[in-house]
Structures are given as C-alpha cells and as structure tokens.
C-alpha cells in the first residue's frame, strides 16, 4: 500500500472521528425584541451553531455585519428598535416598580402583537413561508417572550421548534407546558409585589386571584390576537395558536435556583445559565485600560443595562449619585448617556458604551452597581463581584431581593434614594468583607456543574434535530383543561358531597335531638305524674 493511499485513509478516519454526531441542518432563529441583552444571548447561540457546521438564518435587529462565516445569514429587523422610543415605554420610567401586573402584561402583549404583525409582513419572511417557497429548514428557534407570535412559522414550515427565553419562566409558560403555576410561591417572580416568605391567607388569596387573571388574560387575549393577525396576514387556515404554542419541542430557560428559587418543571424545560459569558473577554480600550489600571485602591462600575436610558431613569437623582461618587476614595466608571454631568471629572469617568464583561473581569474592581438584569447578575456572580442593586422594571426587584438574601447585594430605591443613602450603601458593601466572601462562594457554586451551558444547549438543539422533534418529552397534562390539571372538578365534587353529607347529618342530628327532647319531656311528665300518684298513696 503506497503512501498516498495511507494518507487518504488517515484523513478519512480523522474526519470521521471529528465529525459532528448529527448531520448539519438549516436552522431559522427568530429574535424580534429590541433589547440588546436578549439579542446578545441569541448571538452566542447562533454563532456556536454555525461553528458546529449548521446553516443558520438569524432574524435579528442587532446586525453584526460579520461575513467571516459563510453558513451564517442575518435578516435585518433593525427598524423594530424604534419601539424602544415609543411613549408607552417612557411611561414606565417615573413609576419604576410601582406598576400593576395588568399594566406590565398589557404593555408586553401590545408590543408582542406589533412585532408579530411586522414579522409576518416582512418581505424576507414572506419569501420563507410563501406557498411553493424553496426555503427549507430543519428547525426553528424562537425567543419565547415578546417574539412568541413567530411560533406559527414552524407549523407553516412543518418543522419542530424550540423556544428560548433569557429570563426566568413566566406563569403562562408553566401553564402552557402543564407545569404547576404556584401563584403564592417565592419562585413566581411576576408577583413580587404580592409575595413574601410569610404570607397570610388573605395575601395568598390576592396573589392567587392576580395570577389566575393574568394567565387567563394571556390565554384569552394574547393567543387570540396572534391567531387572528397571523391568519389575516398569511391567508392560510392555521390550528389554534394555543395548540401551536404548547407543542414546542423544548423550552430553554435562563434560570438557576441560586439566582431564583427551585420549583417543579415540565420535562421539556431545560435550564441554562451564563450562556453568553465569553471565555476570553474582549480587551479594554486604551483609555479604560489606563483608567482602571491606575485604580490602585480599586474602582466601582455602574450600569443600568441597555433597555432604558440612564439619563431618563436617573433624572431626579443623577446629581445625588454623582455627588456620592465624587466623595469616594475609589475611581468610578459609569455607563451614562446624558450631558448633564462631566464625561470625566476627578475620580469619575462616564461613557455611553462600556465592555461590561471586560470591566467585571478586571482585578481592581470593588463593586458593581446594576439594575438587576439577569445577564448582568450572571456576569457579576461569574466574576465574583459584590453588588448594589437599583431595580427599575419587571423582574429586577425580584432578582435583587434574592441576591440580598444571599448576602452578596444591597438594594436602594431609585425613586427615594439621596446622596447620603447611596454613599453609605456603597461604603458598607466595600468595607464589609462578608459581601465579597459570600459572592466568592456563590461564584464557586455557579461554576460547579457537570457541563458548560453552551455544550448543554447545543446538545439539546441537535437532539431535537436528530429526532425531528421531542413529543415524548411533552407532559400530557398540558392538554387537560385547567380544572382537570389540579383535580379541581374532583375537589369541587367532593366538597359538594361533603357539604351535602354535612347538611344531611345536621338535619338528622337536629331531628334526633328534637325526638330525644320530645321523648325526654314525655318521660319527665310521666315521671312527674308517677311521683304525684305515689305521693297521694302515701298520704292516704
């Protein structure tokens, strides 16, 4: 056997050994929401899938303009980012976390409905689902919160789909998949206004009522509106949207009992954490590198995320916060977009954009002041940085309260905080070693897992592709009406029977007592008569 033949055999065997266990497929990934933190999570997923050899078509409003991957295509939805500037978004700013569950749902559902209509009318999307289209896919992955209206395209393409969310589970996700909702449990982050560790009966009743109304509002309003819009746009007869939604193969959810609370899950719910965190954070800019490198006493980093503009959120207290920073013996790096404070003055440096992971990984960091977002919390825990929480909207108060309970964070109310309160909170966290020690232990727990989240998620995605869906993981209870899921009809029947038996028993007891009373009176009367008769005989 000559050398050329041996070389070919060797190359073939090497390719065979290094090949992926699943045939490469074509995957449509859809993320319609304008939040950068949500987009960046899916960016990590799509890149990893493309690196595995799959052809990825990514519907996104955060275009990367990177053509290095020939099997990676982006469909531009950047025009949807203007939804962030709508008046309805800014109405949440002065209220902070004092909005009702109904207001949150109404806002989210309305935005989701607009995104759904825009999605199905987009020219590039029409090419995909149009009758006779040559576009073929093996799997659809959809952001499962505000983009859930896109679930229906998987049915049109006749392929399985996976939903993925970047936050904790919502109540309607649990209802959709047949898992218990647990309206009065601490894990139900949507009801943080109503839930506490020690709730009275009436508080639990209120939380139960709010949860029930919220779930059925989603079931009756959200799914119905999506169904109506999609049918009108695509012009084909579809199954009920609720049926499409509950038949997802998997729900990938960004949650961990360490940052939330353990709860029972449906079999097709897969948890992951820290998916977006880079193995090697990008290098700092020369200016930031010099500023942080010279922070020999340490530095503080503040960022309130990407969804809201800090200049709007902090309009009332920006001077208070700036004055508190100026008094500190530490350098301060502040992600801020306003021009009402100097860009660089004394120990404070502000910038509209900061590479957060690179900053949190810096050895000189002392404290991270954040709004309570999931991705920021994961990064802080991963790099072991103590926290000061300034919650603004949605799930942020819930998450910060949990971190406070773990001893790694303090919380201040942005609507009432003043310079002295802010300064004292910072000083306490930095000078009380227990915050850093607790965060170091929490970081160790978070990192101690049998496999990396990226490997886990990619394995499950390819699992669904290999088996063309995962109906065997679905909980059949998801098909039952709500009253059967919790045996409410049986409980009601037994309650009625118990009530009837109690009433009948009470009636019988009452009649028995009357009978006894009547006969006792007769007995006493006869006894009295007998005594009188005997008395007369003795007298005679």
Automatic annotation (TrEMBL):
InterPro entries, per the entry: UDP-glycosyltransferase, UDP_glucos_trans
Transmembrane segments annotated in the record for this chain: 490-510
UniProt keywords, alphabetically: Glycosyltransferase, Membrane, Signal, Transferase, Transmembrane, Transmembrane helix
Coiled-coil region list: none
The keyword Cytoplasm belongs to this UniProt entry's keyword annotation: no
GO molecular-function term, one example from the UniProt record: UDP-glycosyltransferase activity
Keyword Transcription listed: no
Cleavable signal peptide: 1-24
Homology family: Belongs to the UDP-glycosyltransferase family.
This protein's name: UDP-glucuronosyltransferase 2B20
Protein species of origin: Habropoda laboriosa
């Amino acid at each position: 056997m000559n050398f050329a033949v041996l070389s070919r055999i060797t190359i073939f065997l090497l390719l065979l050994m290094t090949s992926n266990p699943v045939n490469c497929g074509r995957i449509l990934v859809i993320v319609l929401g304008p939040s950068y933190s949500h987009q960046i999570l899916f960016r990590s997923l799509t890149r990893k899938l493309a690196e595995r050899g799959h052809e990825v078509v990514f519907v996104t409003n955060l275009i990367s303009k990177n053509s290095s991957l020939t099997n990676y295509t982006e469909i531009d939805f950047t025009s949807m980012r203007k939804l962030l500037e709508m008046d309805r978004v800014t109405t949440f700013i002065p209220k902070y976390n004092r909005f009702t569950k109904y207001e949150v749902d109404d806002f989210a559902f309305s935005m989701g409905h607009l995104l759904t209509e825009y999605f199905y009318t987009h020219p590039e999307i029409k090419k995909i689902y149009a009758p006779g289209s040559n576009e073929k896919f093996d799997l659809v992955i959809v952001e499962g919160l505000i983009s859930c209206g896109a679930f229906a395209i998987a049915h049109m393409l006749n392929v399985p789909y996976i939903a993925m969310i970047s936050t904790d589970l919502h109540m309607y996700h649990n209802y959709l998949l047949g898992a218990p909702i647990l309206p009065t449990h601490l894990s139900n982050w949507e009801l943080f206004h109503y839930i506490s560790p020690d709730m009275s009966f009436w508080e639990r009743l209120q939380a139960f009522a709010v949860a029930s109304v919220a779930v059925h509002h989603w079931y009756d309003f959200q799914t119905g509106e999506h169904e109506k819009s999609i049918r009108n746009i695509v012009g084909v007869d579809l199954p009920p949207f609720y049926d499409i939604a509950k038949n997802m193969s998997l729900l990938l959810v960004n949650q961990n009992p360490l940052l939330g609370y353990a709860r029972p899950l449906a079999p097709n719910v897969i948890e992951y954490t820290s998916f977006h965190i880079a193995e090697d954070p990008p290098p700092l800019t020369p200016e930031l590198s010099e500023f942080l490198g010279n922070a020999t006493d340490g530095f503080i980093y503040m960022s309130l995320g990407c969804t809201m503009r800090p200049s709007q959120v902090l309009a009332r207290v920006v001077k208070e916060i700036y004055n508190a920073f100026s008094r500190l013996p530490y350098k301060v790096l502040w992600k801020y977009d306003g021009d009402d404070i100097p860009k660089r003055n004394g120990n404070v440096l502000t910038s509209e954009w900061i590479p957060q992971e690179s900053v949190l990984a810096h050895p000189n960091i002392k404290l991270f002041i954040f709004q309570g977002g999931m991705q920021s919390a994961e990064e802080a825990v991963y790099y072991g940085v103590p926290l000061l929480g300034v919650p603004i909207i949605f799930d942020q108060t819930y998450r910060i309260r949990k971190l406070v309970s773990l001893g790694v964070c303090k919380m201040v109310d942005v609507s009432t905080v003043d310079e002295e309160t802010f300064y004292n909170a910072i000083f306490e966290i930095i000078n009380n070693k227990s915050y850093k020690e607790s965060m170091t232990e929490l970081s160790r727990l978070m990192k101690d897992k049998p496999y990396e989240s990226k490997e886990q998620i990619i394995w499950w995605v390819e699992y669904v592709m290999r088996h063309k869906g995962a109906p065997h993981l679905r909980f059949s209870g998801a098909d039952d009406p709500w009253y059967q899921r919790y045996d409410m009809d049986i409980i009601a029947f037994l309650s009625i029977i118990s009530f009837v038996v109690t009433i009948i028993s009470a009636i019988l007891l009452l009649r028995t007592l009357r009978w006894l009373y009547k006969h006792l009176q007769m007995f006493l009367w006869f006894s009295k008569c007998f005594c009188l008769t005997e008395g007369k005989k003795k007298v005679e």
